[in-house]
Amino acid sequence: MAVVITVPICLLLAVAGLAVDSRAEALGDARTTRAEVGLSLRVQALVHQLQRERGLTNGLLGGEEEFRPPLAATRGRVDAALRGMRRDGAVESVVRRHLGRLTGVRAAADGGTADRSATLTFYTTAVDALNAVDPVAETAIRADRRLSDGLAALRELAAAKESVALERGLLNGVFAEGAFHGREYLDFTEVRATRVAALARFRQVATAPQRAALEHAFGTEDAERATLYEGRAEDAADGSVLRADAGTWWDAMTVLVDDLYAVQRSVGADARDRADRLSHDAETGLAICLGAGTLVAALVAGLAAFASRSVTRPLRALAEAAHDVARNRLPATVARIQQSPPSPPAPPSPPSRPSPPSPQSAQSPDHPLELLPPADAPDAPDAQLLGGAVEIAEVAASLHHVERTALHLAAQQAGLRRSTTESLANLGRRNQSLVRRQLGLITRLEQQELDPDALAELFELDHLATRMRRNAESLLVLAGQNPPRPTAAPADGLEVVQSAVAEVEQYRRVLIAAVEPVRVRGHAVADVAHLLAEIIENGLTFSPPTEPVEVHGWYDSEDDAYCFAVVDHGVGMSEADKERAHARFSGSGEEALLATPTRFLGHLVVGRLAHRLGDGTRVHLFDTPGGGLSALVVLPARLLAPVPDPSASPPPPARPAVSSLLNGFRAGVARAEARTTQGASS
Fold first, then answer.
1. Distance CA 500, CA 484 (A)
2. Contact 274, 207 (CB under 8 A)
3. With a threshold of 0.85, does the pTM exceed it?
4. For the segment 426-448, what is each residue's pLDDT rounded down to a tens digit?
5. What DSSP assignment string belongs to 425-461?
6. Residue 478 backbone phi and psi in degrees, to 5
7. d(CA 357, CA 214)
């Protein structure tokens, strides 16, 4: 029955999903096309003004001073169009790259020092770049041939218009100077060939009204006058003197270019209207598909409810047995397996199944367990009332299968925990390796950088990477892995404190008050610095941002140990919280990790680091006089190395308040040890 219901429902949902996805994709394509056509028209407006500025500039460089007033007005329109393009990232990058020298080119043209051919090339390159970034060139609606043809027509018309405008600018300079020079005639023929090819491609994809508008643009008196001037230019291929008025040529070609621009805007408007229509149709189709999908979902819900009721009614007689398995027997058995060693022995067979397992199966942790209802379980009700004995037997077998599967999974839980721990350790090692490479790269960049501002940012990035390294090492510590960055040489106590301070976020608030000389053995340097960093970070987090966190260090000659004190003036901790924190410091097993809330994982890291440093390493929490919390870290003598220069001058004495605080720490430790001794003697 489940197959009969599920297969049609899945097919209906799949069909509805495909329909909705197709409509959504069509809607997205239509909206993208509509936006890109609008952007294309803005780009072509900028291109149109640049083409006019190019022609006027070329005529001015050819000697026609009468072009200066219209050139100034055209430059203003170009600047206005450029300001409108700054909202589009791709177009703005092209403008910066190809029109960055526009001001200099204009100044050179006004001063008469610019080369006419180079100036023409500058403008032409910029126009070609803008046409290349035109989004219409990348837009295509596969499901609508009319829109695709409209976009292709718009693209080809842009190419033809650029050829006409380039010919206008080129011959404007030639007519102003009176003859062709260099490759100008070849450029003229190439431009005309490009125009002819682009117009031929336009006529292939354009509609009849669009072709008629194009023919009208080329059939005006100005267009015919421009054709006569083109004929004169063709006859001067040998470099002979041209007798043509540059102003008349410019006016005639400008009318033709403006007419072509009008046709271009008309084609773009048609494409945008078509995109709007497709977008509306896609929205309607998507709404219909969503409505149909809603109906299908309602049908699915109804069928599921009906099937559920038809299945649950004959299973009521098994509810008591299922409750007994779920509430009593299965939780108790799973708890025993979870508390067993990694390879737990199989529990004994239930009383209702007295057949003993084979020796091989009894020794295998993967042996399927059969937990059936006890002998005194209530009998099943009448099979006729529940739909027949076959269905009941199938449900009972399913319950037993679920029970055996749960037991099998519980037996494998210890192995899964170990796999999870290894995965965390592997992830921590990978992260630390990447951070280590990142720190090396940052160090090289710092050595090469001379700019103080950039160097300051590199230092901040270095500090952030150092904190990331500490987080990766904390993950390894929680996973029970050895330190991945051992240090062979001993380090000064002040260096260890500075290393710890470098690994916290608000390091500027840390005040290293007084640290007596000490040498920490190389294998313990990384762990001690990490431990101090965790404690300092905790103090910074739970103290006001205006209050410093102080770090002290002194040698305790009575216990032959070295002590670090981290003092904050924050919110402090209650006695109960401190007891729980001390319990986390002493907990190094897997159960401590599972039972500790995530916000206290730092306590576990401190405890495991102290445990890894060995016997004699202790962490104690005390109340700070005046409010706050202080942490005392005690390092045994075996972690300390001899000081290389015993004749070095002693550090300056601590302030009275600091001395009092340190004495308080010593007194607190002494009282704690005295209580421990008394408890042992009693």
1. 16
2. no
3. no
4. 776 777 678 778 778 888 887 88
5. HHHHHHHHHHHHHHHHHHHHHHHH---HHHHHHHHHH
6. -65, -30
7. 94
